[in-house]
Specification:
mainly alpha
């Protein structure tokens, strides 16, 4: 129903009303409902097509109509602007400018006779100098000409027209703009003729003519009117001859510059003029006599501008040793693109006695920007005398990451060097990276480095692992290696290619390492290496490995499982595996190692029951020390294997005989020792003439000797 209501309002209700408050309420309602198209239709009927003067001349309604059309229907805005008369022209013109409706803004200013603003739109927004000039010719108003002239002065190719416009405006006020245009654009001689004419006019209208007189001198010099310039200088004037000389020098009007500097007795600047006049050798000599930094700077820069780099270098060497001048010299050369000559000069300056750190640093920065292929050579030669942090930043900006890594290393920022190589793999060098990681104290960085190698340089992973082996946790490292590419390579990931690392850390006899290496050897079917690993480094879950091997298809692995069960005193499992594989020797070794009478008896009867008589013989010999001879004799008689048991009985009888003979020999040796001892005692007593043996019984003597061993017999004197 909205459309019906709107049609009724716009066609019947509002055209017949005379109450402004109702119109105002309706407009507000349309605005609140965000109905701009309908609002335009409504306002157009009220303002444009209505005969009611109250509404058609209403300024607010006209403003609202134009603003709404600017917002929603720009094509109709011009129609309203030309048709309506009672609206706020200046405000709406500004809104049009903000909406990029410059033609509409120009029309508004023209209708409201704001010609200066109108020409401003043509110049500032539309940049149509041709229309602006036609507009100024049409109106011929001083303000318009002045605005046009000021804008034309901002363009190099329109300075003459701008000055002409200001002359037609008879306005000396913008003389500063004229001077500024001369300084910025350095117009040609023909243009300066018009400028001089304007400045002479302005000189008669203003009190402070210092800038004007200076510019007149420069203009006369630019037009090569040197005689007239000398005459002007000789008359009373307020010109700044120094500035004029500098300007003439910058414009390469050398005779005038020389004349002006001579008038002020400024010999330092004469040197610069001589440079401009191509007498470079004399200019350097004058600069040497002046021996002032500004003079050196001027001659140096002038020589640079004229590509006299040998002389520029002579001057520049006097500047770069001054830290305050160094940056200016660098900027001057760089701004003009003389990078090669600048580097040559800086290289020469490094050998000077007054060379300072900033020189080395800035030279290094130049290398990073303009000679990147030699930046590394410079860094290696001069890093000790350079400002390393600043040089590092320059390398980072120039993407010279290898040089950045080198500087980090020299600055003992090993963590940053590693981070740079990981962030920019092109700067990675194996030896540098390993050296940095060796000196790095941050374990987290080492684990990040491990991930970096896994992703970027997996072929060199062992070099890294061997380097950080002493610092990282083997368990965590193995876990990382196993998890990397586990989907592609299986549960062990890339761990199999890290055997050198595992061999190195295995010396610590860590269970995780031993288990990982054993699994790899098992995966490679490297039985001999697996046996050696188990033998040398037994710290791991041996029973787990034995259980995984006891059902292997390879008999050697089952044999190894039996050996592991035997080493871990699981003799029954070991014997059972050996029995299944008919490895009788291993079974006998396991039973012998157990020293379990029941297991030995069980295996012996197994051999006899299965008619494995040689096995029974081997069993008797292997378990000889604890196999009861009586039981052996019983089995021999029961199973009729006396012939196979005979080696056991022969060895038993031999041992018994050896024991008996040993006892007899021991008895004889003891008796002989006692006899020798008695004889020695008798000889000692008989050989002592001071001893009188009265009442001493031989049995007592020998008894005492045999009881306490060899010792001296104490006897008393008989009275």
């Amino acid at each position: 129903h909205r459309k019906l209501v709107v049609d009724q309002i716009t066609s019947s209700a509002l055209p017949n009303t005379q109450a402004p408050e109702k119109v105002s309420a309706t407009v507000k309602a349309f605005m609140s409902a965000d109905l701009p198209e309908l609002l335009i239709e409504l306002l157009e009927k009220l303002v444009v097509h209505s005969s009611n003067a109250v509404f058609s001349k209403n300024k607010n309604l006209q403003n609202l109509l134009i603003l709404t059309s600017i917002k929603t229907n720009k094509e109709r805005a011009m129609e309203y602007i030309k048709r309506l008369e009672n609206y706020d022209g200046s405000d709406i013109a500004q809104i049009c400018i903000g909406a990029d409706m410059f033609e509409e803004a120009f029309t508004i200013y023209t209708r409201f006779n704001k010609n200066e603003d109108a020409v401003g739109v043509l110049l500032d927004q539309m940049e149509s100098f041709e229309r602006a000039e036609e507009f100024a010719l049409k109106l011929d108003e001083p303000a318009v000409w002045s605005r046009l002239g000021t804008a034309q002065l901002r363009r190099r190719d329109m300075i003459a027209k701008g000055v002409t416009s200001l002359i037609r405006a008879q306005d000396p006020g913008p003389y500063e703009n004229v001077v500024l245009a001369c300084r910025d654009f350095e117009p040609d001689a023909e243009t300066y003729d018009a400028i001089i004419k304007f400045l002479r006019f302005a000189r008669t209208k203003l009190k402070d003519v210092r800038v004007i007189d200076t510019e007149i001198i420069i203009g006369l010099a630019r037009c090569n009117r040197f005689t007239e310039m000398e005459e002007f200088i000789s008359l009373p004037n307020s010109a700044d001859l120094e500035e004029a000389g500098e300007r003439c020098l910058s414009m390469n009007v050398l005779p005038a510059a020389k004349l002006l500097f001579s008038a002020t007795n400024n010999y330092a600047r004469v040197a610069v003029v001589l440079v401009k006049m191509k007498d470079f050798t004399s200019a350097v000599e004058f600069a040497r006599k002046a021996d002032k930094v500004p003079t050196w700077r001027a001659v140096c820069f002038a020589c640079v501008d004229n590509n006299e780099f040998r002389l520029a270098q002579i001057c520049g060497l006097h500047l770069i040793v001054d830290a305050n001048e160094l940056q200016d010299v660098l900027d001057y050369y760089r701004d003009r693109g003389h990078f090669q000559q600048l580097i040559d000069m800086m290289d020469t300056g490094l050998s000077l006695e007054r060379a300072h750190q900033a020189m080395f640093t800035e030279t290094g920065i130049l290398y990073t920007k303009y000679r990147p292929e030699r930046a590394m050579e410079f860094c290696k030669m001069w890093w000790q005398r350079s400002g390393i942090p600043k040089l590092i930043r320059a390398c980072d900006v120039a993407a010279l990451y290898s040089e950045k890594v080198f500087l980090h290393m020299q600055y003992n920022e090993h963590d940053n060097a590693i981070a740079c190589m990981m962030e920019h793999p092109s700067s990675w060098e194996s030896t540098v990276f390993l050296e940095a990681i060796l000196k790095c104290g941050n374990v987290d960085v080492m684990y990040r480095a491990l991930s970096f190698y896994l992703n970027e340089h997996v072929d060199n992973i062992n070099d890294l692992l061997l380097t950080v082996a002493a610092k990282v946790d083997p368990g965590r490292t193995i876990s990382i290696l196993k998890s990397h590419c586990s989907r592609e390579y299986g549960e062990f990931g890339i761990l199999p290619i890290c055997k050198p690392y595992l061999h190195k850390v295995q010396q610590k006899n860590v269970p995780e390492v031993n288990e990982a290496l054993n699994n790899i050897l098992l995966l490679e079917n490297n039985l001999e290496a697996l046996k050696e690993s188990i033998k040398q480094y037994p710290s791991f879950d041996q029973l787990k490995l034995a259980r995984s091997l006891e059902h292997s298809e390879c008999v050697e692995y089952r044999r190894l499982a039996a050996s592991l069960f035997r080493e871990n005193k699981k003799y029954e499992q070991a014997v059972d595996i050996s029995k299944r594989d008919k490895l009788w020797q291993d079974a006998i070794l396991s039973a012998a190692a157990s020293k379990d009478p029941e297991l030995v008896d069980f295996l012996s009867r197994f051999f006899l029951d299965n008619d494995l008589r040689e096995g029974f013989t081997a069993m008797l010999l292997a378990c000889y020390e604890f196999f009861p001879p009586a039981l052996a004799l019983e089995y021999s008689w029961t199973y009729s294997v006396m012939d196979f048991s005979m080696p056991f009985f022969v060895q038993t009888m031999e041992e018994i005989g050896n024991r008996v003979m040993g006892l007899e020999e021991e008895s004889k040796t003891r008796a002989h020792a006692e006899e020798e001892f008695k004889k020695n005692v008798d000889e000692q007593i008989n050989d002592d003439p001071s001893v009188l043996l009265h009442g001493v019984q031989p049995t007592a003597i020998f008894g005492a000797a045999s009881a306490s061993g060899p010792q001296q017999l104490a006897l008393g004197w008989q009275k």
